[in-house]
Write a structure and sequence with these properties.
Number of strands of chain A: 4
Oligomer: homodimer
Largest sheet of chain A: 2 strands, antiparallel
CATH architecture of chain A: Orthogonal Bundle
Radius of gyration of chain A: 18 Å
Largest interface: A-B, 73 and 73 residues
Distance between the termini of chain A: 38 Å
Helix content of chain A: 25-40%
Shape of chain A: globular
CATH superfamily of chain A: Winged helix-like DNA-binding domain superfamily/Winged helix DNA-binding domain
Strand order of the largest sheet of chain A: 1-2
Chain lengths: 150, 150
DNA sequence: CAGTATCCCTCAAGATACTG
DNA sequence: CAGTATCTTGAGGGATACTG
């Protein structure tokens, strides 16, 4: 059996540390990205990513164990399985969008083509996400504090 | 010299893939988190994270090379350096907040304590970030499409 | 204090072959 | 097609010692 990750961060009181421990792995994040893009089958992920089969097996297992994917019987009647996002998994959408928006802004040359995320109905790109106060005002990092433990 | 990362994703047209390639590494993300928490010195990061010195050297080097940190002379007059977020680095704030908010909601038991991010002035936690259309309406993953290349 | 230089060991990762 | 099993390589990562 392939090993899972270190896990030592799961005892941390910082939610960032725990979240990083669960999903901040290159293959894991790309699998989740593809799931938001509608992929569900082992072969869909495997071909799209060019990931080694054993790696994909490992990542899918971890994602299911983490409650991010759930396994369902294949919708086409074959005896295989589909990996679909749970509610917990779907709530990773803002995280994937945050990766995307930062990448769009900072990792492409002027005029260089990139794949874009659009609102299907309007064809418009999304608004740039930013943290806001409860009143809806955009907040800058310097205006925030971490309260150590609650 | 310690090696940098694979880099093969930097040719990808998907901004998520490129961004993942640059920053989706456990230590890298925790260093950036600490930078938002005000840390600037090698020793600050090292003690806070318990990271091996050589690992920290490698991560800081990569972060500077990626334009996320810039090196400045120490503000206390010593001959050492400080690592401060550039504008590009500061724009990772929504990403870190996305990790935090997902972690808060899904990786702590009911009533379990966690370190919280607050608006300093009001003491209030931030609003839950979510992707919106240009009109400000919250959008769900199923309402979006990736347009392959532009 | 802020790094650099080694050493060493585990594990991540790909390649390949096999199975129901 | 959807995995599992095995093998090998090299990178990730910690520990320790050294340097300006």
């Amino acid at each position: 059996m392939l090993t899972s990750k270190h896990q030592h961060l799961q005892a941390e009181p910082c939610p960032v540390a725990r979240a990083v421990d669960v999903i901040a792995d290159r293959w894991t994040l790309l699998v989740v990205r593809d799931a938001f893009d509608g992929k569900r089958r082992f072969g869909d992920f495997q071909r799209g990513l060019g990931i080694a089969r054993s790696m994909l097996t490992d990542r899918l297992r971890n994602l299911v164990a983490a409650g991010i994917f759930e396994v369902k019987p294949a919708s086409d009647g074959t005896s295989y399985q589909e990996y679909v996002l749970t509610s917990k998994g779907s709530q990773l959408f803002p995280l994937i969008v945050a990766f995307r928006q930062w990448g769009e802004r900072h990792l492409f040359d002027e005029g260089e083509a990139y794949s874009q995320l659009l609102e299907t109905a309007s064809g418009e790109p999304l608004e740039l996400m930013s943290p806001t106060t409860v009143n809806g005002r955009t907040i800058r990092p310097e205006e925030t504090t971490v309260r150590k433990v609650r």
